[in-house]
Amino acid sequence: MIFADVIVDISVKSLDRPFQYIVPEEMIDDAVIGAMVIIPFGSGNRELKGYIIGLSGEAKFDVERTKAIKEIVKQGVVAESHLLSLAYWIKENYGSTMNDAIKAVLPVRREIKKKVSKTVYPCQTRSELEQTMQEFAKKHNQARVRVLQALLNQEDFEQGIPYERLKQEAGTTMAVLHGLEEKEIVSVTEERQYRNPVMRAGERDQQPVLNDQQRRIVDTVTGDYRQGIRKTYLIHGVTGSGKTEVYMGIIEKVIAEHKQVIVLIPEIALTFQTVSRFYRRFGERVSVMHSRLSQGEKFDQFERAKAGEIDIMIGPRSALFTPFEHLGLIVIDEEHEGAYKSDSVPKYHARETAIELAAMCNASVLLGSATPSVDAYYKAQRGEYKLFVLSNRAGESILPEIETVDLREELKCGNKSIFSRRLKKLMDERLANKEQIMLFLNRRGYVGFINCRECGHVIKCPHCDIALTAHNNGRLVCHYCGYSEPDKKLCPKCGSKYIGGFKVGTEKIEQAVRETFPAARVLRMDFDTTKGKEGHEKILEEFASGNADILVGTQMIVKGHDFPNVTLMGILLADLSLYSSDFRAQERTFELLTQAAGRAGRGTKRGNVIIQSYAPSHYSIQSAVKHDYEGFYEQEIMYRALMDYPPVSNLLTVTVSSKHEPLANDAIVWLLNAATKEIEKIYGGTDCEVPQVIGPSRAAVYKLNDIFSVLLFFKHKQYTVLTQIKDILEKYIREHEQDFKMVSVQFDFNQ
């Protein structure tokens, strides 16, 4: 007798354990690790879905009381064993239920009807079929006559006719064909067809000639690979340095070893251009996975991957969980992007998860960015990753010339427009020369920091060097230590009344562009204009084909796109991300400015970049102007070390949410007391570093959709210490389940 350990499809902590079921004899062949099953659950034997995570010949409980699996879902996506192992790792490291972790690694779970193509073939010779048709005609069976006539009209008679065409030409149905099949007059065959979301992208590209820096990286990584050495590599290459060509050079060698490759990109907006380049290089064995695909398309890509029909899968975060049997390489392009961090439970980071998956599959990991995350560069400096540098642009293009404009001076000169005088002058010139312009606003909406337009002063926390955030209750609050003070009507530095938050959006900028440059053809690219399935592709194709002069957009326009005719990038308000209530604000700003600047001058003409700011002397802006990543990193890592922020230290954030405000506030205090008690028990009387506890404090948005959220923070040099605290709190919640019935608790690391 075979028994299966099944994790039930219920995201409840008390049920976050496997339940044992008998595998009926007739299902033994289909009972594999990862299979989706239907099981009777609870006293009422209600039917639930679950996943097999273990098989054994030993019963853990009384066999007489052990229930049997009712059904194995054969059309469901069967998880590979390493994906289930990865789910367990995610559960342990990021704090979630096992079920939530499984749902993350199995983005396609429900049954999807397979798409098939049907072909109708004659079972008789041409003369026999003509005689049969005449007999049907005598009986006035016109439906059958039409089918046979369509077959006889085929030049290549024996090759049959596709059912869809036959249905159109003869107006037939499957019922008619089944009747003919029973009489052995025709046969109907079915062939599985996979939905392929990849658009054909032109002729195959020839392998380009790599420069010395590019070739050294390809040779080193592939040399390691051939020797069985698996590492994590970080490519720090300036914008336009040809990182993608390096990726493809390495990928070519890996797939030649009959291995498969996952290529992660941060956003759907990048898929069109990226997939096109890869398709032109590698052909039809390239596929794509992202949230805008239909369930049928997603299902088919996973099935193709399992069947070995795909060599390269491209997509955002969820593409990491492609069920490849022979995974050899994971590429994470623009690895610095915040989109690689999941914002829903489980809150895993794709970079760290990819490294763990690669270790399980004996694969390598290749990270690439013009602005590596401080976390990744820190690890490279410590020898955890191998670092490569691409210091020059590929081909004939050179880095753009970057200028800053002080918006305080513009205001003093009476210019209250969105466009500085310098930017407007350059825009006029580019439009006259038939060159393209990109205008970037680094937030779609607005952020909560308070800024003086007269002197540029930003109101910060006196304890954390983080901008205070305006709350609806008239208070300015620090979200890291809980400090608060009353909102300001006048600037505390210069006394100006021009103080407050910004409410500038892309729609307003588009309107201003049309008013200022009425002859210009303008496109806007943000969340609102890209909601459709092919929203990104349509806008990018329109701009790439030269049917627009100016593209206005948010972050999605500055990430990895290559438009040779763009010679001017205007960054309208650099400060929008600079002073957000996030310890990574300086890093995010430097990344965005550098990435945005990199869109200009990627052709043969040198580009110009204008950065408009109220704080042009800030080190993140000055470093971007000088294309000086190392200079930025040195200052930023000093700041992180001083404040004990990641990656120098580690940060655990505990978020407690509830529709009932008193419950949320009570629960966070219970967790604080439980953690404090255990920390004292473990570290009391020892010389070990004691975890730092901060809070409780209200979330940035305290009330959202009638749900109240409060925060608790823990800091420590060792990541394992924080996972231990997470485990302590999870145990406390399980033991006091009744108290947490109407409360949600989420854990997040280093965010």
Topology:
Elements lengths: L1 E7 L9 E6 L12 E6 L4 E11 L14 E2 L8 H14 L3 H8 L9 E8 L3 H13 L3 H11 L8 E2 H8 L3 H9 L3 E8 L18 H15 L5 E6 L5 H14 L3 E5 L6 H12 L3 E3 L6 H12 L5 E4 L11 E7 L16 H12 L2 E6 L4 H8 L4 E5 L10 E6 H6 L8 H12 L3 E5 L10 E2 L16 E2 L4 E3 L6 E3 L12 E2 L5 H11 L5 E4 L9 H10 L5 E4 L12 E6 L3 H4 L6 H13 L10 E6 L5 H7 L3 H15 L6 E9 L2 H23 L8 E13 L2 E10 L2 H17 L8 E6 L2
Parallel strand pairs: 9-14, 9-15, 10-12, 10-13, 11-12, 13-14, 16-26, 17-24, 17-25, 23-24, 25-26
Antiparallel strand pairs: 1-2, 1-4, 3-4, 3-5, 6-7, 6-8, 18-22, 19-20, 20-21, 27-29, 27-30, 28-29
Helix pairs in contact: 1-2, 1-11, 3-4, 7-8, 18-19, 19-20, 21-22
Quickly list its features.
alpha/beta, globular, 751 residues, single chain, 5 domains, Rossmann fold, GIY-YIG endonuclease, seven-stranded parallel β-sheet
How would you briefly describe this protein structure?
By secondary structure, the protein is α/β, with parallel strands linked by helices. The protein has 22 helices and 30 strands.
